[in-house]
Each structure stands twice: as structure tokens, then as C-alpha cells.
Amino acid sequence: MKRVVIADDSVSARLLLKQMILECLPDIPILEFKSGEAVTKNLAEIKDCWFLLDMNMAPLNGLDTIKLLLDEDIPPHHIAMVTANKSKELKNKLKTLDILCINKAIEPHESEQCVAKLDDFFKLSK
Amino acid sequence: MGQIMNQSENTDISLDFLAESLNLGLGHVIDELSEISESRIELHVPEINLIPKTEALGFTKELRAESKAIFVKQQFAGDIEGEALLFFSEDESLKLLNGLLPDSDATLTNFADVEEEMLLDITNVAVTGVIYALSSILELSIATELPKCEYGRFDEIEGQSNLFDDAEEMILFITISFTLVSKDAKAVLLFFQHKNSFSKLHKSILQKLKLQ
């Protein structure tokens, strides 16, 4: 069975993201990491997973982690960034890498949009 | 979906949730400041602690050595209440203000009304952004008052302010810093919140995370 990897330095952000993932895929196993480095160190065991990565975490932020995952031949459509960062600069970099960007929710209606985007991501990258 | 956690873990997760909410709120603010300054802005992970007020005010030691300081205070009230402070030395504030001005504008050398207005705007944007994120995520009603700016010798400001009342009280102390990369300027925003108000916030956070 496919699994989801989430990497975020905030435990509460991981909790909220897990709740949203389980709305899309109620039985999916979820693996949690606190940094990009922790993801890359365990890559041999998690290569076939979906990856949802935060931007601001250390060591190894989300963007640098994505570049390493792509270097390891993880398909870009198996990776998404879930971030509060709405800058055009980051969006352009992700677009160049063909990586989906999902903004973290503030308003309740944004939570629904976030779940819908996650649902599309999982369906389209099956 | 509820999970059993002890008091200390619950407090830690509340503080973590606050840091994450502040990041979300400031994400919006930093976009606005980036546009004004035409400079890339780096947000540093907020530091959040429950500590005695006297300890929180330890940061003022450096400011005491400065000849003058700028001190912008903004209160918020509603389901939770507290106060936010933007606090810097005169040199640091001028560096920040010069950083926030487009390159074509004249360099500032003195703190004057126009700079005071800009600092009030910065504080208002930052505090409003943070309060917007907190109130939206937790579905709380919180209103911000207009910020007030004071400028002068630190000891004089301290004497006029009620910031230092009840100095032994435990408070929620939040420090947020951001850097305008090309201008080498750094601003620090502090949030103070009384412990009884934090209890209400703590309860809302645990409900949001389905831990209660």
C-alpha cells in the first residue's frame, strides 16, 4: 500500500495536515519527519511514497529537499510543497521544477480548498 | 480522534501551534513588506515561551545602553487579550526604515513624524496579520487597537509605561524577527500575553487540534 511522507518542523502543523490527508484517504499510512534532512536520510525505505513538504524547516528546507528527491528520480508529481509562503519567487521556482504548491489554510474555507487540492494531488499521481 | 497527552505536552503543542499560526500570519505581512521595500524578506522561526515578565524584559538591557529607543505598543482584546511591542534602538529603527524605503528615496538621518508614522504602520500590519491568523484559525473574536509610538531615552519610556507593572507575573512571551536581506536590517516584534488569557487560548488550540 502506498504511504504519505509529511515533513514539517511544527508538530501542530503535522497534526492538522494529517487530519486533512485522512479526509482524502482514510486508511493511508502516514510517516512524519521534522526536517528535510530526516526525509533524505530515510529515502531508501520511502522512495515509493507521496511527499508533502513544508518550506521553512531545518536542516534542509523544503525546496532543497525537493531538489534532492528529484535527483533520486522521485517523480515530481509524487511531491507537493505545503507552505505558508505565498511569495511569487517560491511559486516560480516550484513551477520550474513542476512541483505542486499547496498553501496552508488560515480561513475555514481555505481548509476546504486545501483538502480539495490534496485530493486532486493523490488522484492525479496514483 | 482525541489523544491522551500530559499537561506539559499539551502546553508544548499549544506553543508550537502559536508559532505556526504566527508564521502563517506573518507570511501575509512579509509579502506586503517585500513589495514596499523591493527586498527579499526572511522570516525567522518565532520563539515562544511562558516566562516571568521580568525575564521577558531581559532584552531591554541592550536598549538601556543606547541613547534613545523607539517603542511601538499595540493592544488587542476580545476572546483573548494582550499587547504587542515593536522595539528597537534608534540606529536599528533608522536602518529598518531606510530599508523599507524604495532605493530612490532620500536616506533618513533623524527620527521624525514621518518615520513615526511608518513604524506605526509596520506594527499595525504585523500585529494585524498575526491576530488575523490566530482569530481565523481558532475562530475567535479579537480586535486590535491603534498602535502608539514613544520615542526617547529608555528609562524615561519605562517610567511612563504600564508595561512593567506586575513584573513577576507569568506571561506568554513571543519574539518574531524578520530580516530585509538586501538592506541588512532586522526588526523584532514582541507579544506579551497574561497567563489567564493564555489559558483561554490554550483551550481553543486543543479543541482545534482535537486533543480535547
* Helix vs. strand class of chain B: alpha+beta
Report the uncertain regions of chain A.
none
Number of strands of chain B: 8
Strand content of chain B: 25-35%
Q: What is the mean predicted local confidence, pLDDT of chain B?
A: 70
Note the total helix count of chain B: 7
Give the name of the CATH architecture of chain B. Answer: 3-Layer(aba) Sandwich
Secondary-structure element order of chain A, as H and E?
EHEHHEHEHEH
Order of helices and strands of chain B: HEEHHEEHHEEHEEH
The number of helical runs of chain A is 6
Distance between the termini of chain A: 11 Å
Taken together, the total number of domains of chain B comes to 1
Structural class of chain A: alpha/beta
How would you sum up this structure, described in words?
The complex is a heterodimer of chains A (126) and B (212). By secondary structure, chain A is of the alpha/beta class. Chain A has a single domain, classed as Rossmann fold, CATH 3.40.50. Chain A has 6 helices and 5 strands. In chain A, helix 1 links the parallel strand 1 and strand 2. In chain A, helix 1 crosses helix 6. Chain B is of the alpha+beta class. Chain B contains 7 helices and 8 strands, in the order αββααββααββαββα. In chain B, strands 1, 2, 3, 4, 5, 6, 7 and 8 form an 8-stranded antiparallel beta sheet that branches. Chain B starts with 6 loop residues before the first helix and ends with a helix. Classes of the chains: A alpha/beta (126), B alpha+beta (212).
